[in-house]
Amino acid sequence: MTTPETAPISDFIRDIITDDLKTGKHTRIVTRFPPEPNGYLHIGHGKAVCLDFGSALEFNGECHLRMDDTNPSKESMEYVESIKTDIRWLGFDWGEHFYYSADYFERMYEAARTLIRNGKAYVCELSQEQWKEYRGIPTQPGKGSPFRSRPAEESLDFFARMRAGEFGDGTLCVRAKIDMASPNLHLRDPVIYRIMRVPHYRTGDAWCIYPTYDFAHPLEDAFEGITHSLCTLEFEVHRPLYDWFIAELGFEKKPRQIEFARLNVTYTVLSKRKLLELVQGGLVKGWDDPRMPTLCGLRRRGFTPESIRNFCHRIGITKFDGYTDIALLEFCLRDELNKTAPRAMAVLDPVKVVIENYPAGQVEWMEAVNNPEDPAAGTRKVPFSREVFVEREDFMEDAPKKFFRLAPGREVRLRYGYLVTCTGCVKDASGKVTEIRCTYDPATQGGNTPDGRKVKGTIHWVAASHAGRVELRLYDRLFKVEHPEAVPEGVDYKTNLNPESLKTIEAVVEPSVLQAAAGTRFQFERKGYVIADAIDSAPGKPVFNQIVPLRDSWTKT
Question: Which of 48, 210, 321, 509 is spaced 20 to 30 Å from 408 by Cα?
């Protein structure tokens, strides 16, 4: 059976790949996913992972995983391992094709030497501020560096001494010699090597010079035989430079860079720098905080890899920037969990109901359906007693005509239990309802009505005699506005953080829920989907995270 996730995909990138195979330009497709290990992957990276690995799978090719680790000041093995974990969790694997940019440092160094020897690069002594001034603006030609005509042998000597550590950080750099009059600033003699005395997490102190991303990326693609290098749209202006390096260094197999629109999602930010600010500022509880758009955060929240792949399938691949409503991601998860998550009853804001004519001390075990969407899921037994808990919002003392829940004189169905009729309530000195009084009809066991009478209201409940209590974390969107980064100049986007994004309550639950292992998902009937937290849950004492509500909010029933 075809599912949304497995339905055939058509987009401009796959059309290009199809044509390249059809014309014989390529006989085997090789893509790559090249994250910089300076943070945890987020849902935007998830889109790229699904494209890079997914297209390779569809065309019987291969996808490489490569750590673009050319900036050691921000990179670490912690991030490397998290990236590998997240990709595998999404359902993809790179096999034997796992690489680091650092593995190519010697080859990149020789490539830069080749450019210098061929008069296509030089060692420059301008400071960063001077270099920016010389580069100019797109509408006016830049000014050539006074070191642009430095002889190749002299630049090679300086470059070797840079590598040997003779010069301080920022004092010298290597620049490609291209076109200072180009309207594309990236072609105005870009820096390809800089001095940076920072130990690398893989090479240690072996290097004090590092290639820039724009220089390293096309070389890595060429070294690995990448056929289709898929990037987001911000790299479109870098493509002429990418192609220039490939041409000038004479690579026989030329990878092709193709750009697509990055993912932007409402009510969140997808900048690793900003996500790192939230983590380091203590505004969230780490990269895996369930409010974060990181893959590890979504995983801990309770999202499934299938729902994320389905989401990426639905949004497609285009050349047009825009925003995707986070509600679509939530819909994809609900669509899956509705079919797969077992049901359970939990009361989030409990008030006690006393069934006056039910025998004191008696407990019946009612048969409840585990998942009405999956007959194979079977049934479970839930206890029923004289006292049960229901949601406070399911009772109104002075209810309007269309309120179909508990109110004096009105009858409702306790799901899987009995039909009960409200006879009144008990209040404390402040007027708050502390207890609801009801009677039950013994002929309606299991919620059935042998006489055929119609009862419009059905509510969930938990037997007080067997109720367990669990911590439940209710999550809302991390930001309170749709586009949190759209702030006036001088205003910090963090002012848009939602102070109500996390509320912790104690819920009462049916006894089977207490045995849930970490990672177990449920639909709390009429409330929403939850997961036993992977870190904070303990045997017999699960802690639950709200994944998504059944609808837009937890108060709708």
Answer: 509
